[in-house]
Amino acid sequence: MTLPRQRGLTEQAADAAIDSACRLLRLPSIRNEFSEIADRAIKDQMTYRGFLAELLMTECDDRSRRRSERRIKAAGFPREKSLRAFDFDANPNIDAATIHTLASCEWIKKSQPLCLIGDSGTGKSHMLIALGTEAAMKGYRVRYTLATKLVNELVEAADEKQLNKTIARYGRVDLLCIDELGYMELDRRGAELLFQVLTEREEKNSVAIASNESFGGWTKTFTDPRLCAAIVDRLTFNGTIIETGTDSYRLATTRARAEEQANVS
């Protein structure tokens, strides 16, 4: 398709030509915001180069935002969580400086693991999802899953002779987030399949886990001591371990809210 070229277009004709060209070139942000940017350019007396740069930057910024949104959606997070929304004062066990250093994603670039260990309600899943979201926004491919869901998927894949394909799929993402590791006992087969995924990713791509059990208690999840030790080794080597504590800040928040309402009434 070739657009007709004319000189001395009216404003209406120029707008129509711009709209058609943007559709042809797949520039939706410029098409949607051109008029507003053009008005601002006149008001601010931009040069032609400045105006062109503003248009192109608008398109690039919007494409980057849409890519981030697609990566976050593809990660499969169960809910939206951000570092900005986390109350570090409510749980002093979690060091804000450490978390913000992790948000730079250098550990993912270096294919290092991350372990978040602590009781329920101490912020493990929040941190796992929030750091995974930061990684997706920075261009990394991220996948979130519950430990039991991952193991069930691996067992089904093995039964259907699709195990290698499934392990390879989990091996390709830059960051694999495994939540609720240690909540349920895994049989030997499930534990061995999970071990294969971790081995596939070892020193190639990062794994981040959240667990309510200290490493010493993982023998309840992985009943084979040697396999348990091997899994702990892969999840901790050159990694970061954050202990989120035992006091549920969710419970503390609920109690504080209840006391506040009681005082008001």
Provide the descriptors you would attach to this structure in a database record.
alpha/beta, 5-stranded parallel sheet, 11 helices, 5 strands, elongated
The beta-strand count equals 5
Strand order of the largest sheet: 2-3-4-1-5
Mind describing the biggest β-sheet? 5 strands, parallel
Helix/strand structural class? alpha/beta
Estimate the strand proportion: 5-15%
The first-to-last residue Cα distance is 71 Å
Number of helices: 11
- Identify low-pLDDT runs: none
What proportion of the residues is helical, as a percent range?
55-70%
- Average pLDDT confidence is 88
Query: Whole-number radius of gyration?
Result: 25 Å
So what's the overall shape?
A: elongated
Q: Strand-and-helix sequence, N→C?
A: HHHHHEHEHHEHEHEH
Q: What do you see in this structure?
A:
With 265 residues, the protein is of the alpha/beta class. The protein is built from eleven helices and five strands. The chain has helices at 11-25, 28-44, 48-75, 96-102, 106-109, 124-137, 147-159, 163-172, 188-201, 225-236, 249-264; strands at residues 114-118, 142-146, 175-181, 206-211, 240-245. A five-stranded parallel beta sheet has the order 2-3-4-1-5. Helix 9 runs parallel beside helix 10 (225-236). The longest helix is centred in the N-terminal third of the chain and has 28 residues, at 48-75. The chain is elongated. It starts with 10 loop residues before the first helix and ends with a helix. The mean pLDDT is 88.
